[in-house]
Each structure stands twice: as C-alpha cells, then as structure tokens.
## 1
Amino acid sequence: MNYMEDFQMLQIEENSNTVLLMPLVGKMIGDYPKDFLEKISQEKEEAYGK
C-alpha cells in the first residue's frame, strides 16, 4: 500500500481508515469505430501531405 500511495494509485484517509483507489489503478480499454480511424488517417495525410 505504501508503494501504491507513493505513485498516487491510492489514498489512505487516516480519520476513517478508508482506502481510495485513484484512476491510475484502473485500466481503460476501448476501440474507435472504423470510420473514425479512417477520418483521422485522412486528416493526417492532408495535413502532412503523405
């Protein structure tokens, strides 16, 4: 817990002995829709001329 607290993964509230898990503990996974990725790719090509 000390290690996690040092890296701001959790906070310990000493008054209530509550352990708060911070967002860094979780891992977010997601996918972009295919048309969104194609649009981003096209915009990059237009911007950089590739």
## 2
Amino acid sequence: MPRPAPHLRGLLATLLAAVLVGSTLGLTTGPGAATAAPAAPPVAAPAAASAAASAASARRSGNPVTPGNFTGYGFDQCLAPSQKAMNRWLNYSPFLAVGIYISGKSRACRNQPNLTPAWISTQLRRGWRLLPITLGPQASCQPRFPRYQDDVRINPAPGANGRYTKARTMGRNEATSAVEAAAALGIVPGSTLWYDLEGYDNANTHCRESAMAFLTGWTNQLHTLGYVSGVYSSAGSGIKQLDTIRATKDARYTVPDMIWVARWDGKANTSSSYLREDGWRPGGRVKQYRGGHDETWGGVRINIDSNYLDLGRGSVAPAESHCGVRVDFPSYGSLKPPKTGAKPDPTRVRALQCLMKEKGGYTGRINGVFNRRLLASVRSWSARQGLPVVDGFSRRHWTALLAAGPRQVLKVGSAGPEVRRVQRALNAAGKAKLPVNGVFGPSTTTALKAWQAKVRLPRTGVVSARSWKLLEQGYRKR
C-alpha cells in the first residue's frame, strides 16, 4: 500500500501546525485518504504549534527514526523495563523491538520511572526498535473504559453533519499530545506513533463510526506534525473496520500508515483471516500473536505480549564492495604459499589480499598470487591477533579475520555489515554455507546455534560479546 513519506519536516512542520490550527486539510495520501475534515477549534493552535516545535527539537537529538525498516520479533509491556532488564534481553532473547507506552490517560502505567530521554537514546543506540504507544480515549461501547476519573471515552455523537466532528477533534488533540510526549523523549519526526484502540462492538454504529473518526483525526494530525501514523487494535473490530474503509475507499475517513493486529493465534506472521492480504503490504504490519505471559531471558522475567513485525522495506542490508573482488564464499578452506607445493585458489587469495589491505597490512597487488608480501602481512597479522604464526592461512585464521571489526549485538532482524561478517565467519568456521546477504534470518540463526554448541556457548542464536570474542579468536570447536 502506498504510504505517506515522512511528511512535513523542520520549520515547514512548525509553520503549518501554527497556521493550519490543527486542521488536516487533506494532507494525507494513499488509499482511503479522507476528504478535508473540519478545522479544530482555535484553542488547539498553541498546542499544535508547541508540538511542532517540540518535534523540531527532538530532531536535534541525533536519534534515528524508529522503528524504521525491520522484519523480526518484538515484545510489549506496559511498564518500560529497567536498563538492566533491557541489556539482558538484548543479549539473550530473540526480540529486537519493544513497545512502550509514552502517553494517554487510559494507560495503566501512567507512571513510567524508567522512561527517560536517556533510556530512549540508549535503546536506539544499542539496536532496539521502539514502538511508542498512546492509550487515550477508547470507543464509547468499550466496557472496560474509562479507567480513571479524569479519563474520557470517544464522543459518539454524529453531530449535525454526521461526521462525528467532536471525535475527530479528540483524535487530533490526542495526536498533538502524543507528539509532545514523543519529542520530549527524543523520538524524532518520521517515527511511527501507535494508537492503542482496544476491542469494541463493531455492530454499534455510533461507537464504530466515532472510533474511526477519532483515528482519522489522529492520523491526519500526526501527518501534519511530521510523524507516521500507526494503529493497534483487535483483528475482529478496529483492524477489520479499518481494512473495510481501505478496501472500499471510504472518503470519510483516513486509514493509518501502519497497523498492529491483535490476533492471538500463536502464529508469528502478519496475516489474519479478519484482514485482506493486500492491505498495508509490503511493510506496514505488526501482529501481536500471543497475549500476556511470562518469559525469562538472561535470568530476567517479564510479563509480555509477543509480536512479529514486517515494517518499511523489512530488514535490508546495503550492498558492499571490497577492492572490486569477491570476498563471500560458502567455504574458505586453507591457503598455503606455492613454495610448499600447494596451488592456492586465486579467487580466495585475492580475497585474502583485499582483506589484508583493508586491515592496513598488505601493500602489494591484488593479483591472486600468494606472494612474499602477502605472507609477511599474514604472519604479522596473526602475531597481533594471538593466532598461530604459520606459512599459510588456515580455517581458524579465516574465521578470525572475517569476524574482526566493530561489535554489535545481532539476532533475527539485524541487518548490515556486521551480519555479513558473522555469516562469512560461520562459513569459514564450519559447513554453514550461508548466503552472505547481511540479513540475520532463520538460516543464520540455525548456523550460529550449531557453532555455539561446538564452542560450548549457550545456544541463544544471538551474537553477543562472548560469541564475538570467540569468533574473533577463530574458534571452530572447543
């Protein structure tokens, strides 16, 4: 589904928010885009301008857009976990995305002692993808809300024009508050903010239509303020109705850019029988496939919901080039200089010459000949790494060389040059024969677990500090 690009940025967002007084003016694009909604009351102008200014300030934090391009596992919990818990789960769990409740008077966890700008920037820097959630006014027929005395429901009155104007205004105001909360935490424009609309009765016309009007206000105002709109809801109520609006191109409403489907069927995918397969694809779906339960990773237990994400372009890695020669192989084997009587494979010798040149130890030509300069650089490098200094290059040397570099915790959903290094190193260490595509998927997980078992590490399927250390030491078994 075509989705709005990160919409209005910087000064433009600030000026529009102030001038338009919170009005949407049909700024959205894509299927289901609404006609222009009535402008918010004049009192909303200062709040919208303040939210836009906050968003501009958040941009200066240097944090990346979240969640960005990602395909993998996530969890959500009402109370943002402690930094210690996040560290343990990063190193031991399969999850690389986390839902956090940042705003809304209906959320059970109004007090978030761990949720600070430092917490946000730390998780983003370490590779976590964040899903900021707002739980505010709920559908008028939702029996479990309002939760508090100062909490309100979505106004179900259709109004004189039948457009549920009050509900739309509530949605816009909630989006403005969400942007202020997100910006204060350093969540930058272009990020997706999610509205949590709990399940309700779709057969109740005013309840259903006012909820959709509210979400229209939410989406349009987020677009005005430069953020991406996401909606979490039950597959059988909110998501089903949004999909109907999308499929029928109902011009009264605006559909969100991304959806988060609550469907506890135990299947880690983004499909549901309540939802047409063509909607919000590619890259616009999250599915909560398991409800509240306890999980323990790294000795830390948290009660969570489990999710599977397929967002943006998915987990993708940029192309790489190394000296214009091939460095990716399903296996690497050993290389010996010609003086030993061996006939080393020139394609792998070129790869070794290139990689040694990148390390600053080889100054000769990349010609596929195991020459004296290459042998000298190999011996010098081996000594520096604490590896056996021999006249050749073994599988252990390959494993260490291919793994060497910056370290980051990697698991399903990770993508980039670090993943390529691990894939090459696993191919050198054993018989993994992985495609070196820079995307950490199931095959990389399987190969990693097999290697971890051989070197007597816990079979976590996560490349943490201990795995990096042994890979860079060239371990193939222990």
## 3
Amino acid sequence: MESATHGVVAREGTRPLANLTEIAIPIHNEEKVLVASIHRLRRHLQKHFPYPFVITIADNGSTDRSWELATQLARELPDVRAIRVPVKGRGGAIRYAWMHSEATVVAYMDVDLSIDLDAFAPLVAAVMSGHSDIAIGTRYAQGSFVARSAKRAFFSRALNSLLRNVLGARFSDAMCGFKAARRESIQPILRMVTDNRWFFDPEMLLYAQRSGLRIHEVPVVCIDDPDSSVHVIRDAADDLRAMVGVARRLTGGLTSPWFVAVWMLCTALYAVLYVALDRVLPMWWANALALVVAVLANTAALRTFSFGVRGAARAIRYQLATWLDFALRLVLSSMAITALFLIGASVPAPVEAAVVFGSIAIASWLLSRLLSRRGGTVEPSYGVHRR
C-alpha cells in the first residue's frame, strides 16, 4: 500500500492511542474541496473535540490531484495521514480504513462536510462512553434540519422506508454520511459486508442490528452540496440490487422464491376476503379489512420465517409497527381516492396512481417522524443489547 502516514495527535497527559478517534474521509477526485475541508475539520476538532484524533484521507482511485494534495496535507499536519485504498468504491474505502485502524473509535464523514460538525462530539461520545456500539447521524428526527434537493430527499426516504418495511431495520437514516463505531465491535461486522459503494452503510447497519449491536442516533443539520457528484437515480437502482442481495444472505439464499410465494399467498388471501366481504360490507370497508388481514399475515410470515423474529413480545412489536405503517397508508390513500371521486370528473389512471403514490410517500414520511420521537426526543438506542 502506498501511503504517507504521520503521527497521531496526543493531547497533554494522554497516551498516543488512549481514547483515540480516527476519522476516515473517503475521497475520489476531490481536489476542489479537499484542502479546505481538511483544514476546516481539523480546526473544529482542535477547538471542540475532547478526545485525541487522527484524520485519515482514504483515496479511492483518484485521477486528479487529490492524492498529491492528500500526501501534502499528511506531510504538513501531524494529525493527518493519507492512504491509498486498493479496492474501488466509497464503502470499500471506509471499510479499508476502519479495518486497518488501531483507534478506540473509528468514524467517517464525507469530504464536503455537509453535516454540521457540532454533532460530531455527541456522536463519538455515545460510543466512547460505552453507551452504544455504533452511533449514526439521522436527518429524520426531531432537532434535525435538512436542506437538499427534492429528488435526493425522495429517494433517501424511499430507501429508508424499504429498509424498515422489507428488512426490518430499526434505524431511521441508513445513508447519512456521518457515523462512528467502537473498532472492536465493528471490525467483525465489516468482514460480513460485501458492498463497496453506497449500500455499504445500510448493509453494515443491518448486520450490526442482527448481531445485537447497540445503535444510537444523533439528529444532525445537513446542507447538501449542490455540486455533489452523486448520481441519485443510478445509485438508487444499485441500492435496490444490493438490498436484494442482502435479503438473500439474511435468509440463506431463499429470499426470491420465498418472497414470491408469500406475496402470492397473501394476495390470494386478500382477493378471497375482499370478494367475500364485498357481499356484506361497503366497498371501502371490505377493501380495508381484507388489506389488514393480508398485510399482517404477509409481515408475520416474512419476519417470522425469513428474518428470525421469535417470541411473542418481538412478534407483537413488529405487528404493531406494521399496523401503524399500514393505517397511515390506508387513511391517506383512501382520502386521496375519495377526493378524486368527489371531483366527479373522469380522472386519468396515471393521475390517480400519482396521487395515491404521493399519499403513501407522505404516510411514510409521517411514520418516520413519529418513530423518531419518544417523549419529544430521539430514541436513545436501537437494537438489542448484548447479554
């Protein structure tokens, strides 16, 4: 590995590696912002961060002057180092840096520093104190503020909704580029992660949750870089493919046929119930009741047999969460359809579909807001504590 490594900062009265936090900054062709961002981050940490730190610039195949600038920064600043990562992808760069770290806490953030740095000390403190194994920034909790394009916001919320409803995720924002973890806890998880690109974060968190690690969420202020090189639609498609792969691994390779079988059985159950109930109930009631039974049956089957949910308490919790999600979707979509019906004019099918889809998206947003609050604050910890 070609690298330029300089000393770890050691505050007065501390050993070089005691309570050390290593912050990985993955880069790929970031010559325009790299120097300014590293200096800004370093100034903030020196002034506001209570632990010793080292900043690791993880270059991931840059073809511009990024590597030259990274090595220059490492030569000039005693608490900055630069490494060249032999694998491609942002996720691969983070994993490589974390796997080769000796710090107590490993963290990462994106080079554009779109997340307000004031949240970094609370993020690391949750892990350093032993309260949690992993701490993640969330843009979807009380106290958060987000300024970003509508397209990026939509795809982000859609992905997080799929993670919760399909894979049983119990964290609100998998994709926020602002995370910290105890090195000894996260390194075994990293060996399980296969995605080297943008789905690295959700995959890591899903495996961590499944392994019983404690995940803490910190609300953040996020102002996206309008010049970001992220390709939203292409990356969203890649994420969906990666999600299918993770689901297959979580279910022993049987996800596709299992999902199809469960979906077909629950669809048939809904059809039979609707036809029977429609004879004795108004259409809206027949539809709602049939959907309730089918959705709960579908969720119970998938999470019990595919995702290892066992025990009455956990099953009830999953069913209640599913009911809340379904109720919001049903109410808002029914209101939207009723409003279209009351207009009286013939509404084209694409318009009706768009209205229903929009109402479901609003329901997902409302659910994420509701689940992110508990007594007016962010839920302090997600996941199952080790026994």
